[in-house]
Structures are given as structure tokens and as C-alpha cells.
């Protein structure tokens, strides 16, 4: 069965059903999971076309709720066509696009409509959209919720792009008042300026110079503010890309006090460590920064304990010139790491060694991320009635990250040459094969996901 085909049933010796892995047949009707038969029943073959994948593992497709597609406006950095093909090749069946780095940013209803138009006819996987909170746009928030944004992101520090300014405390109070009672969620880039000697005095081509310029205290200070606001307004709040383990205590205390607060970390904080970043290797630069190995161990422990809810890519590419590879200047280089295509394999390569199960993997990469965006009634689980979004992969197979296999528009990534465990064989979105063994469906089959709408999947 070729990429682009609609599938009526998927058979495997290893289907992840709840906590069990067992032989099963997933029956698909009109793009949704109709039934999961507990056994590989021979009767299925007579009634429909079956994709038999032997003993490849079948589980829900990944929901990556932190992706910067950058279109419209910065399409030389990334775009819907390339980003969603990379997603499909990596077993990601839903992405949620960040509101910044595109021009215009998704901070008004009209900008949101512009973004959806730009994405139309270009998506190989399903795509939802975050809005943004910037100074003075509070009256745009409810119209954007009604139009289907998944929630909003804001910055407490310069965002890196001038058209998406960061908010002050008073902006945050205004936004919180608008969000109260809506069920929506506010995402925080949780770093705040602190008065500390800057690291810019050191050699800018040494990673340690950059690392010293973004100390843990910047995350700690920001998260203190988030925890307090979340408790005060009881609006769902979410900390994106936690890098430092130091604020975990504050997060836990706020949660125990009843704050509806969630937190994500990223594949790069779990897979890469400051000690291993070579001089001038600005492809490792992101904000907050990749920290040391001891900190990374604490992130893994917190993930295991459920204190960190989910792991995302924070795929944030740019053109190679902005990485300043000629000078290797970490201070001047754009901050952002490309990894959308490799999230599942990056996670599994280390998580499998640390005793995480495939069920944990689904919880961390699919279910919790779907819940954050209120897409969990249709995405992130293998359940009858849910969209038939599947990743079919071999968790034991190893492969090397090679430039010719990277589908991102810009191929620069710190993972080049890495040997990863877990190779994607095929990806299905709503019952259609969008990717199989290096081939893609000829047409982009993804849809826009409008959260909270009567018809959640708007037509193309
Ligand atoms: Zn980001």
C-alpha cells in the first residue's frame, strides 16, 4: 500500500493498547478508529484492505505542541510544506504552530486568519495554532479563542523578534482577566532579566560564555511570577521549554496549592549537555540554554515522577547565516534548534535506557500534549472514535541522522551524525498514509484544527 492510500485496517503483532502491547487489528472508518479487535482476526481480510505491518509497533501519532513554522513572513527559515513533511517522516501527526517568527505574528484575529490562509493546502499533518499575548492586544484574545486558537503564548523577556514584544506585569493582569472562564491556556517563555554581570565579557565562541549570560535564576524569577499569577486567577498556565531544574520546587508547590499549571521540556534539554557543546557550534544555541549534565539528570527524574508533564521539539530553525557559523559567535547567533523530525527517536534513544516504557512515551509525547491544546477528544490516544492518527515504527532499529534524510527546510541541526534508536516506518493521519519508508503522499492531506469549534477540523 502506497503513501497517499486510505487504509481500512492496520494489523500488527504489536499494537499499544492502554498499558499492553498485543496483536491487534485497528479498524478505521471515515478517518476514525472504529474498533480495535484484540486479535489478528483472519476475517478482517475479506472485508477490507489491510495494512499488515508485521511486528512493527503501532501507537498514536505524536502531538508536538511546540513548533515554529515561521510562515508567512520568514519562509526562508521554515514553512508549512517542509515542516509538516518533516513531522510526517518523524511520526508526528499533529503540530501546533507558535505565534511568533511568522510575519505577521498571530496576535490579532486578522493575523490568525492570515496565518491559516498561508497554511492552507500545504500541510501533510494536522495543524493547530497558538495565538500570542503582546502589550495592548487583550481585546483580540476572546475573538481569537472563538475562531479556534489553542491558547496563547507570551514572553517575559525579549522574544528575539521585535514584532512580538514581551509583556509587563500589568499586561499580564489584563490578559488574565480576558482569559478567566474561557478554559483557554496561557503559555510562558519563562525567563526574566536579572541584574547580574553579563557573560558577554568572555570569548563569544565559547559555549560557557553564552551559558553564563542566561543563568538558572532567570528561569526561577520568571516562574515565581507565573506560579503566583496562576494561583491568583486560576487560569490554566503552562511553562514552555523548562531548561533549569531549579524551579521545579516552585512549580510543584503551586500545583499542590491548586494552581492549574503544567510544564514541558524539550528533546534538546534531555539529549544534549553543555559539557559536550564544541566551541563555535552555534547550532546548539537556544534560549533558555542547554545546561549541564547534573541538571539534565534532574530533568529526567522530574519527568519520571510526573513533575514535568510533556516533551516537545520547540523546533525553531533559521537560515544558516543567522547562526553565524563563520564567526561561531554564540552571543550574536540566532537561538533555536531544529529537531521536529527526530523527536520520537531522540526521546526513545535515552528514555528506553532510563526505564521509560512505550506507554510512558505515549503519555509524554501524545496524550499530555493533546490535553494541553484541548485536542485530547480526538488526538493522542488509540481509542474508538478518535482520529486514526498512527505512527508505525521499529523501536529497536537504529539509524544515523544524515543530511539527505532531513526534511526540514534548513538542514542545520546539532543531531547530524547522531545514531538514534527507533525508526519510523509509516505515519497515518485520519486513516491515510502520509509517509511510508521515505515516500510521502503526493497531496498534503493535513487539515487545520480549530480548537473548541463545532466542526473542529476546518476544511482546507
Ligand atoms: Zn519556541
UniProtKB/TrEMBL annotation:
GO terms for molecular function: allantoinase activity; cobalt ion binding; zinc ion binding. Belongs to the metallo-dependent hydrolases superfamily. Allantoinase family. This is allantoinase. It catalyses: (S)-allantoin + H2O = allantoate + H(+). InterPro entries: Allantoinase, Amidohydro-rel, DHOase/Allantoinase_Hydrolase, Metal-dep_hydrolase_composite, Metal_Hydrolase. Gene3D superfamilies: Metal-dependent hydrolases. One of its GO terms (biological process) is purine nucleobase catabolic process. One of its GO terms (cellular component) is cytoplasm. Its EC number is 3.5.2.5. Residues 57-434 form the Amidohydrolase-related domain. Keywords: Hydrolase, Metal-binding, Zinc. Its cofactor is Zn(2+). It comes from the Eukaryota. The lineage of its organism: Eukaryota, Metazoa, Chordata, Craniata, Vertebrata. Pathway: Nitrogen metabolism; (S)-allantoin degradation; allantoate from (S)-allantoin: step 1/1. Pfam families: Amidohydro_1. Homotetramer.
Amino acid at each position: 500500500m502506497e503513501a497517499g492510500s486510505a487504509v481500512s485496517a492496520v494489523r500488527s503483532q504489536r499494537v499499544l493498547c492502554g498499558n499492553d502491547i498485543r496483536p491487534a487489528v485497528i479498524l478505521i472508518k471515515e478517518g476514525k478508529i472504529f474498533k480495535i479487535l484484540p486479535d489478528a482476526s483472519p476475517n478482517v481480510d475479506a472485508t477490507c484492505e489491510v495494512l499488515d505491518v508485521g511486528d512493527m509497533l503501532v501507537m498514536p501519532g505524536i502531538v508536538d505542541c511546540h513548533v515554529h513554522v515561521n510562515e508567512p513572513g520568514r519562509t526562508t527559515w521554515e514553512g508549512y510544506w517542509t515542516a509538516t513533511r518533516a513531522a510526517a517522516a518523524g511520526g508526528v501527526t499533529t503540530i501546533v504552530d507558535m505565534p511568533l517568527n511568522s510575519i505577521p505574528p498571530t496576535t490579532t484575529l486578522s493575523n490568525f486568519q492570515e496565518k491559516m490562509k498561508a497554511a492552507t493546502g500545504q500541510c501533510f499533518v494536522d495543524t493547530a495554532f497558538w495565538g500570542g499575548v503582546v502589550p495592548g492586544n487583550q481585546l483580540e484574545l476572546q475573538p481569537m479563542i472563538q475562531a479556534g486558537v489553542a491558547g496563547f503564548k507570551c514572553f517575559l523577556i525579549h522574544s528575539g523578534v521585535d514584532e512580538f514584544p514581551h509583556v509587563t506585569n500589568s499586561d499580564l493582569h489584563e490578559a488574565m482577566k480576558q482569559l478567566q472562564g474561557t478554559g483557554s491556556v496561557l503559555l510562558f517563555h519563562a525567563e526574566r532579566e536579572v541584574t547580574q554581570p553579563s557573560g558577554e565579557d568572555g570569548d563569544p565562541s565559547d559555549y560557557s560564555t553564552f551559558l553564563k549570560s542566561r543563568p538558572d535564576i532567570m528561569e526561577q524569577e520568571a516562574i515565581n511570577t507565573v506560579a503566583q499569577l496562576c494561583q491568583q486567577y486560576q487560569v490554566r498556565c503552562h511553562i514552555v521549554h523548562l531548561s533549569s531544574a531549579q524551579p521545579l520546587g516552585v512549580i510543584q508547590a503551586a500545583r499542590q496549592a491548586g494552581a492549574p499549571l503544567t510544564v514541558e521540556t524539550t528533546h534538546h534539554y534531555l539529549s544534549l549537555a553543555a559539557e559536550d557543546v564544541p566551541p563555535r557550534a552555534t547550532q546548539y544555541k537556544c534560549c533558555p540554554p542547554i545546561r549541564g549534565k547534573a541538571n539534565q539528570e534532574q530533568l529526567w527524574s522530574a519527568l519520571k515522577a510526573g513533575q514535568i508533564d510533556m516533551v516537545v521539539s520547540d523546533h525553531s530553525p533559521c537560515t544558516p547565516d543567522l547562526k553565524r557559523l563563520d564567526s561561531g559567535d554564540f552571543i550574536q547567533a540566532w537561538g533555536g534548534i531544529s529537531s521536529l523530525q527526530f523527536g520520537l527517536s531522540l526521546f526513545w534513544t535515552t528514555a528506553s535506557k532510563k526505564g521509560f516504557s512505550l506507554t510512558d512515551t505515549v503519555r509524554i509525547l501524545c496524550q499530555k500534549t493533546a490535553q494541553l491544546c484541548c485536542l485530547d477528544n480526538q488526538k493522542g490516544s488509540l481509542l474508538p472514535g478518535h482520529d486514526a492518527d498512527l505512527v508505525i515504527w521499529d523501536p529497536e532499529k537504529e539509524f544515523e541522522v544524515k543530511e539527505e534524510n532531513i526534511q526540514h527546510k534548513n538542514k542545520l541541526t546539532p543531531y547530524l551524525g547522531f545514531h538514534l534508536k527507533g525508526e519510523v516506518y509509516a505515519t497515518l493521519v485520519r486513516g491515510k498514509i502520509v509517509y511510508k519508508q521515505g515516500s510521502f503522499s503526493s497531496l498534503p492531506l493535513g487539515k487545520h484544527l480549530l480548537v473548541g469549534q463545532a466542526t473542529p477540523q476546518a476544511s482546507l
